[in-house]
Amino acid sequence: MNPPAAPLNEKESAATVADTPFAPLVQTNAAIGEPRLVRWLLIGVTLAFLGVFLLLPLVAVFTQALASGVGAYFSAMIDPDALSSIRLTLLTAAIAVPLNTVFGVAAAWAITKFTFRGKGLLITLIDLPFSVSPVIAGLVFILIFGSRGWLGPWASEHGLKIIFAAPGIILATVFVTFPFVARELIPLMQAQGTDEEHAALTLGARGWSTFWHVTLPNIRWGLLYGVLLCNARAMGEFGAVSVVSGHVRGQTNTMPLQVEILYNDYQFSAAFAVASLLALLAFVTLGLKSFLEWRHGSELAAVRGH
Amino acid sequence: MKKTFSLIFSTVLAAAMTLACANAAAAGLLNVSYDVARSLYKDLNPAFAAQWKQQTGQTISIDQSHGGSSKQARAVIDGLDADVVTMNNPLDIDAIADAGLLPKNWAEAFPDGSSPSWSPIVFVVRKGNPSGIHDWPDLVRPGVQVVLPNPKTSGNGRYSYLAAWQYARTRPGASDTDSIAFEKRLFANVPVLDVGGRDATTTFVQRGIGSVLLTFESEARLILANFGADQYEIVIPSITVRADNPVAVVEKVAARKGNSALAQAYLKFHYSAAAQEILMHNGLRPADPAALQKHAAEFPPLHTFTVARDFGGWQHAQALHFADGGIFDQIISRASK
Lengths: 306, 337
Prior knowledge:
The structure holds two protein chains of two kinds.
Chain A: H1 10-19, H2 23-33, H3 36-65, H4 70-77, H5 80-113, H6 119-131, H7 134-145, H8 152-157, H9 166-177, H10 179-192, H11 195-202, H12 207-236, H13 239-245, H14 255-264, H15 268-295, H16 297-304
Chain B: H1 2-22, E1 29-34, H2 38-56, E2 62-67, H3 69-77, E3 84-86, H4 90-98, H5 111-114, E4 117-126, H6 136-139, E5 146-149, H7 155-169, H8 176-188, E6 193-194, H9 197-205, E7 212-216, H10 217-227, E8 232-235, E9 240-244, E10 247-249, H11 251-257, H12 260-269, H13 273-281, E11 285-286, H14 289-294, E12 304-305, H15 307-310, H16 314-322, H17 327-335
Parallel strand pairs in B: 1-2, 1-3, 5-6, 5-7, 9-12
Antiparallel strand pairs in B: 3-10, 4-7, 4-8, 4-9, 4-11
């Protein structure tokens, strides 16, 4: 008989290795099972695809950024408007990510450890920002907080600036990055079940210390992975933020918006300089992610198993 | 492992708090403006700030927001705290007036219909004018490719369309029927209709499409400055349209922010000799004819018409030509067949 379908993913195979004693046999068979030509073809196609769609654009960004020289590159970075956009982007991520982390853990906890009516609805709602266009996400906040919106007149009476200011940008970012942490955690916590928590409770632990000493250590790497994804999106979000930004230079432009503005102003090297910095931030995120996978591969595999 | 974890989180938290404190921004005058006026206000704002400081001793900051004119007007209506708006289309200021943020007779608040500068539609051709384009009839010759933005979505598209219309109907013995025929031939020669003026520039300059680009003179001069005067030439047609750049104080917002006097002075400054020079330096024609005369070499005299006089105003032209099912829709549906 043929062995079960060969694992394609390294992480999944790691999980399989741990579970089945015959795992090495599976792997060997998989290697024999695929003709050499097919393997090389697959690898070749993948590499060519990566080269054209990922590497080439990245190289282009950095080449363009440095087209006017290193001096121009750095002076584009320390331009007050660029600095302010970097600050706003980091501030937005620094608020949106912790908020969504807390929310994500709470939601995943509620969904996986308890049974209640309307759970399906809650899961669907959490997914909403994934399915709604970011432009709509931005417009929603204009409808709520715009000067003709529901809460807009009240906010301006009390001197609160929400849209066309940092709070609106943060709200829009929170909205679009809402599901990342919860979506990472729910499958992981579902897979882990409630046995360990029950044991802790039986041994007399209170809710909080159960969470802190049992649940959190179990989910921490999955959580961190979700946080990194959430962070990448929070820094890179364009559509929703563009709608609520107001584009006041040096004040309400995030880095992606600043890139667009510079590009439209014919300042190509400056635009690509800021873009390259954004790409570097993404690299840091990716690097952290790869580090986690390398360091804690098998634990993460459970997360990816969904 | 637990240590690494809490270390990462506390670092993030500390960074968040530092940043939250650093982001408190000073309030100032906010000028919400159209897309391509950035370099203009980079020159004009410091000049005004210096003059204001000299007169009152106050140090002020002027913030800029740029974007598509209509989008910007929409943002002001939705609550963007603009003290003044500086647009490239009176319709957009009318829309803000309709929302009750400024008086409907805003055009009377400052001289020349509250328009301190203007720009005509001109032709940009490649160096040496290889297609031999000198005037409107050259645009409808077979084989000539005309690049202009979509009149439905962009100001300079609308102005270009109306200028072509005006040219055709002012021929001896001609009428509006001739204009329709002329527009059909013109749009049959248009390979792409971009959304905005900047996109059309990119199509013509960076993608190298088209024999001629129709755009504002200010944008044309910017193309020559940014992409090489040795590669492009400006051609001025026999008749063209005067596109005003109107300004207005958003009175409700300025009053709430206590900026009324400052906003008024800022817009008045646009008409000063110093500001008119800055406007010209940025490729715009000044409202003051004497100032324009001084730079006649750079800004040759033109035969212009206005939308207000010859098309019954923007509201009327918009409804007749550019509304859904209007004349432009009919022209384009046949031109593409």
